UniProtKB/TrEMBL annotation:
Organism, as annotated: Hymenobacter saemangeumensis
Function: Catalyzes the attachment of glycine to tRNA(Gly).
Name of protein: Glycine--tRNA ligase
NCBIfam families named in the record: glyS_dimeric, PRK04173.1
A Pfam family: tRNA-synt_2b
Originating gene: glyQS
Known catalytic reactions: tRNA(Gly) + glycine + ATP = glycyl-tRNA(Gly) + AMP + diphosphate
Principal subcellular localisation of the protein: cytoplasm
Length: 500
């Protein structure tokens, strides 16, 4: 029987995430801090598994990608060179009746999405293109007029009484010195990429890397978002997983296409279906890019970006070279077939892949959260009910297996504890004794545990257990000695890597 999968709304996922220890509102006892969240016991395990999977896919599977962990605080001139001090802005607009503030581009993007959902994608594309043109020209008055022409209303006041559109810098700043009040401000980094760029030569020389090569990093970034909503999709404190791939000028578009395809395969291998993923080429390119595309996932609130792939040219290294007055060049002794001579010194071009760890977490959670209709019992006792579960890929599930003694006597708890102790060095496992075994199965389904191991009286006789599978609910009898290999095969990252 094929289970009937029901569509769920974001509010159901938010409620589930809190109840089962995935995500909590930060400082909730003080009514919370807007757009800041904490990861609970199951959430931190899932997020760490996703980060580790990404890290190993980058640095372990590719012999020419290495990692770093750069500091959050950087010299202020870093952000002058990168363009963030002068140009890291979002267009904001206020509604005079509701006093609410919005990102002007988001209002227009949502209107374009309405057209697309209503069966008029051409009109949506035209609106997006016009918005891109106006923002590229920094025509903020034109952006406001476009909002008015499209009859976009404030969701709260239901009016179109808009202020002028203004640019809003997204960087957080803090005092750079505890003793010098005149010291320049130090910024909380708005992206992790610059820590890679300023360490380009340090990494290249110390790791003896030869172009093309990449530098990967996972780290926190901070943005003072105008509109922070949709749960953990847009936050003021978030985590990025980025890889900057340094290439010879003139080869960047070939590598751009290579990484574009590679990164989509990663998301599909993780369990995000191809039908719910799409590429979205940027209508407005960032100041550093000559090509850019987003990988979007269809969340309950529509298609939104989870990863960006950008061809950043030599902008970043070139800017740092100019402002620091320290050469950021690589000597390439490979032979140029056109001239018969080495390529020599040049500032490398960069292809970037940047994943939001929190957005990937949310996409994984949204895809895994399912409600299905199942049938239990036989004959007159047969009944149907709705089962809620998380169909997480076993490789990233917070708990790999739960061990259940059938009853709390007759030596079964002691036997279950013995199995727990044998497995806990290899996997995150839990042992539960309370409640009926059916309720214990349900609890593990709700957090995505792929296997439940039942210890019964037969176990004491022949050292076999019953393994119950989360997705199919099928049960398999096997020797205790086979558990480590059986579970290990299913939860290995290799199951994901084989699909890349």
């Amino acid at each position: 029987m094929n289970p009937a999968i029901e569509t769920t709304q974001l509010k159901d996922i938010v409620a589930h995430a809190k109840e089962y220890g995935f995500v909590f509102q930060s400082s909730e006892i003080y009514d919370g801090l807007q757009a800041v969240y904490d990861y609970g016991p199951n959430g931190v395990e899932l997020k760490n598994n996703l980060k580790r999977l990404w890290w190993e896919a980058m640095t372990q599977l590719h012999g020419n990608v290495v990692g770093i962990d750069a500091a959050i605080f950087m010299h202020p001139l870093t952000w002058k060179a990168s363009g963030h001090i002068d140009g890291f802005n979002d267009p904001m607009v206020d509604n005079l009746d509701s006093k609410k503030r919005y990102r002007a581009d988001v209002l227009l993007e949502e209107k374009a999405a309405e057209y697309e959902n209503a069966g008029d994608p051409a009109r949506g594309a035209a609106l997006t293109a016009e918005m891109g043109r106006l923002l590229t020209e920094n025509d903020l008055a034109g952006v406001r007029q476009l909002i008015i022409d499209e009859k976009i209303l404030c969701p709260v006041s239901k009016t179109g009484n808009w202020t002028e559109v203004r640019q809003f810098n997204l960087m957080f700043s803090t005092q750079g010195s505890a003793v010098d009040s005149d010291a320049p401000p130090v910024y909380l980094r708005p992206e992790t990429a610059q820590g890679i760029f300023v360490n380009f030569l340090n990494v290249q020389k110390s790791a003896r890397m030869k172009i093309p090569f990449g530098i990967a990093q996972i780290g926190k970034a901070f943005r003072n978002e105008i509109v922070a909503r949709q749960f953990i999709f847009r936050m003021r404190e978030f985590e990025q997983m980025e890889m900057q791939f340094f290439v010879r000028p003139g080869t960047e578009m070939e590598w751009y296409q290579t990484w574009k395809a590679s990164r989509r395969r990663f998301h599909e291998a993780l369990g995000l279906p191809a039908a719910k993923l799409r590429f979205h080429d940027h209508d407005k390119l960032a100041h550093y890019a000559n090509a850019a595309v987003d990988i979007e996932y269809e969340f309950p609130f529509g298609f939104k970006e989870i990863e960006g792939i950008h061809s950043r040219t030599d902008f970043d290294l070139g800017q740092h070279q100019a402002l620091s007055r320290k050469k950021q060049q690589y000597f390439d002794n490979d032979i140029d077939e056109a001239t018969g001579k080495p390529y020599g010194n040049y500032v490398p071009y960069v292809v970037e892949t940047s994943v939001g760890a929190d957005r990937l977490f949310l996409a994984t959670l949204c895809q895994a959260y399912q409600e299905e209709t199942i049938t239990e019992g036989e004959g007159e006792a047969q009944q149907t009910k709705t089962r809620t579960l998380l169909r997480l890929h076993p490789a990233v599930a917070p708990v790999k297996a739960a061990i259940f003694p059938l009853v709390r006597k007759d030596g079964l708890p002691e036997k279950a504890e013995q199995i727990f102790n044998e497995l806990r060095f290899d996997f995150r496992v839990v042992m539960e004794e309370r409640d009926a075994i059916g309720k214990r199965y349900t609890r593990q389904d709700l957090i995505g545990t792929p296997f439940c191991i039942a210890v019964d009286h037969q176990t004491l006789e022949d050292d076999t257990v019953t393994v119950r599978h989360r997705d199919s609910r099928e049960q398999t009898r096997m020797p205790i000695s086979a558990l480590r290999g059986y579970i290990g095969e299913a939860v290995s990252f290799r199951r994901v890597f084989e699909l890349l």
